[in-house]
Design goal:
Helices cover about 30% and strands about 20% of the residues. It has 12 helices and 25 strands.
Length: about 450
């Protein structure tokens, strides 16, 4: 193309070039439809940002983004003067917009600072309502201090988060330092945060930025010890590849670590205002999915990619998010992605076993009583007219009570009360009533 024609086309020509470049990158790695990708660590708080995020996801192969906005920012950067007011408008404003206009492709966590003098500003009663409102987790940032088990007013809230199956998403445990130098207190930040996770074994902690341990061989050795000891600790990879230490980082060792602990690592970007751009995300995909030398999403040191196997990528991109974060699996399945209910060695046992009963009318021909489950169960009981039956967990998101089990019931309408319990001890009952009608006795 000559210079005159190129000048006449202007921005259109640049857009065309960018589109071809993105398509070429997509061909080098998995196309967008090959697997869903959940970005569980973003910061967005405006409708235009949500729209821009969806446009970018359509270019780089993303499927869902989780925004950690809401209560996160404070004008004076002082957690003691912060206010939780903004969270109350998200369910009726932003969530409605995203559901109606963007097919639920942005999910939300209410963020909050912990205040050293007062703990977490959410009350236990507020945490009970978050899941009903549509939030999918809780975001914590210990403002200016470590999150210590000695801070008051955190333990009841963290226990309630566990009971509700609301994970601590992108939990930020301070910073190891900045351009001015290392933070000498940071090792204590790490250790105290792990003590908090240890004190709340039913609560899921997804630590942001790989707990700042995915950046070096030594850090990964420490993180391996934490993973081996605390099954409720997980990490995201947001910004970690940008901060890798080439002199102290071995790609082959990192690859082995990601493969071994694939059940414990989630994909996240830490982009703000839907920034990062499609090409930046494609660079991050190259780093995870190929051997190509690249610098990742945030322009870190150029290093060889990890070239992770497909099963590991499945875990990082969406399997772990689907089993740890409410609504992720449902939104993906609504978009026609098939999500295995039991994924290799990991089960959906960190989410409460939400349970429903399908209405059933029996008229002559016997039929099984059935329903849905939100996670794999350890026990499942069905109470009909005061008689307790053992239900069957099909391990595919459904349960049943075989027809022969209740064949002796007489004609009438019955309330079916299902109690589901998972391996963590989280218990749920169905919310419906009078689901079973028998027209004639069997």
């Amino acid at each position: 193309m000559n210079a005159t024609l190129r000048n006449l086309l202007g921005p259109a020509y640049l857009t065309l070039l960018l589109t071809h470049a993105l398509q070429a990158d997509q061909q080098m790695i998995f196309p967008p439809s090959a697997m869903p990708r959940v970005d569980m660590h973003t910061h967005m708080d405006a409708k235009v940002q949500y729209e821009n995020a969806v446009k970018a996801m359509d270019q780089w192969g993303g499927t869902i983004s989780i925004s950690l906005a809401g209560l996160f920012w404070v004008k004076d950067n002082d957690g003691n003067n912060a206010s939780p007011a903004s969270v109350r408008k998200i369910p009726s404003d932003d969530m409605v917009f995203v559901k109606e206009k963007l097919n639920d492709r942005i999910l939300f966590c209410p963020g909050a600072f912990t205040i050293p003098s007062a703990g977490i500003w959410w009350s236990v009663d507020e945490i009970k309502t978050f899941k009903e409102q549509g939030f999918v987790g809780l975001k914590l940032w210990p403002h200016g201090k470590i999150l210590s088990s000695k801070i008051p007013m955190i333990h009841e809230q963290l226990d309630e988060a566990g009971r509700q199956g609301m994970p601590l998403v992108a939990f930020h445990t301070g910073d190891p330092g900045d351009a001015k130098g290392d933070n000498k207190e940071f090792p204590k930040y790490e250790d105290d945060s792990i003590e908090v996770a240890k004190a709340h074994p039913q609560t899921t902690f997804i630590f942001a930025h790989g707990l700042f341990m995915l950046q070096s061989d030594k850090g990964m050795e420490k993180l391996a010890g934490i993973f081996d000891k605390y099954p409720n600790v997980f990490v995201d990879v947001a910004f970690t590849h940008n901060a890798r230490q080439p002199a102290n980082y071995t790609v082959s060792k990192a690859r082995e670590f990601y493969i071994k602990y694939q059940d414990r690592i989630l994909f996240g970007s830490d982009v703000f205002g839907a920034g990062g751009g499609a090409q930046g995300f494609l660079n991050e995909r190259k780093l995870l999915e190929t051997k190509e030398v690249t610098d990742g999403l945030h322009g870190g040191p150029k290093m060889e990619g990890l070239n992770l196997p497909d099963p590991v990528l499945n875990h990082l991109y969406y399997w772990n998010a689907a089993r740890l974060i409410p609504r992720v699996r449902q939104v993906l399945e609504a978009s026609k992605f098939k999500i295995g209910f039991e994924l290799g060695s990991c089960k959906f046992d960190r989410l409460p076993p939400d349970v429903t009963v399908n209405p059933l009318t029996v008229k002559g021909q016997p039929a099984d009583l059935t329903g849905t489950l939100g996670s794999v169960t350890e026990s499942l009981t069905v109470d009909i007219a005061g008689k307790i039956y053992q239900g069957v967990d099909n391990h595919d998101g459904t349960w049943k009570l075989p027809a022969e089990k209740f064949a002796d019931l007489s004609a009438g309408t019955y309330n079916v009360k299902v109690t589901a319990k998972n391996s963590l001890g989280l218990v749920r009952n169905d919310a419906s009533t009078n689901e079973l009608k028998i027209i004639t006795a069997h």
